[in-house]
Each structure stands twice: as structure tokens, then as C-alpha cells.
Amino acid sequence: MVVLAVITGLSSKAQYVQPERDDTVRLMAKTPFDTSYARAALAKGTGTIKGVAFQRTKNGYGMKVGKPIYARNSKILLFPVTPYFLEFLELKKKENPKKLKFAYLSKEAWFFRLEAISNSAGEFTFPDMKPGKYYLECVLNWSTTGSYNRYTGTGYNNYGGSTNYYTREYYTRSHSDLLSKFVEITEEGQVLEIKLK
Question: How far apart are the C-alpha atoms of 196 and 187, rounded to whole Å?
């Protein structure tokens, strides 16, 4: 009983705890973020951005085929295009998850955005927009299912013949696609219709 108490006490309070390694390379934009420009870009206007967010599946040759997969009830993000944001997007191209290299958006830049939720047909709207350039993005999560015949064994008969036995196996694969697009409202009152794919 005493030995168990001593072992338990030692395991819960060690004299030294090895800190976790943080090998993540954080890529941050060096251009200062202009909050006044971003605030003015997201002020109320009379323009409207309407769109549909979707993706088509690709076959084994990389060709887009089949029916569109709509971004149902998905969050669409809209950012004003600023020099800071353009530099951030360039840094995203240098990301390498295998080497723990990621681009990060500052808290200020993340704060200045608009969000919309799409309907079941992938349609979304950003009303009351001012003329200007904007960047839209949406993460589309979807899955594919399929089946294959898994070999389970071989049976032999009395005459030297054999029969292979298979079982039908089903699988599901999860996918995640980033849909993004640059758009521009050129004048007040404009209704811009886009396809976010």
C-alpha cells in the first residue's frame, strides 16, 4: 500500500517536465496592416455580391466531371484586398505542412472580414458592399463512398480445384477543398454574380 502511494506520488509531480518542442515556422506578413483602409472598405454601400459556392469532382486524370458538389450551409469569408492581405496570400503559397511551415494572418486582419452562410444550394449573398476589391474563400468539406472486393481466403475441393472467396468492403473518403476568388465591385449599386469554385 505504501509503495503504491509512493509510485503514484512520483508520477504526478515530477521534478522536471520536458517542454514540448515547437518546430513550427510561422510566416507573417511584414507589410503593416492598415486598419482605417480596411474599416472604410467594409463600410456600408449599395453594391451586392451574390454567388454560388461549389466544386466538381475530378476523375483519375484530373478532369472535372460529374455533378457539382455545393457548399451547403458553409461559411463564406470576405476580406478587403489590402497590401498586407496580398502579401499574406503570397506567403500561403510557401506553406509546407510536412516542414511545419505555415502562414498566419494577424488578429487585426482577421477581425476585418465579413461572413455569410450559404443555403442548401450553395447560394450566398453579401449585401451593402462598397466599390472595391475583395477576396472570398470557403472551405468545402465533402466525402466519397465506394466499395471493393476484399480477398478472404481460398477453398479447395476433392478434385484439386480451388475457389477464391471475397467479401464486399465499403469505405468513405473525406475531402476538403479551399474555394477562393478575387472579385471587384466597380460602382455603387452594382449586383455582382459570381461562381466560387
Answer: 21
Burial class (CB in 10 A: 0-12, 13-18, 19+), 79: buried
- CATH of region 23-196, choose from 2.40.10.10, 3.40.47.10, 2.60.40.10, 3.40.50.720: 2.60.40.10
H or E, element range at 63: none
**Predicted model pTM:** 0.80
CA torsion sign for 5, 9, 10, 11 is positive
pLDDT digits (tens, 9 = 90+) for 2-16: 555 555 555 568 889
Cβ distance 168 to 149 under 8 Å?
Answer: yes
What pLDDT, in 10s, does the model give residues 118-151?
999 999 999 999 999 999 999 999 888 889 999 9
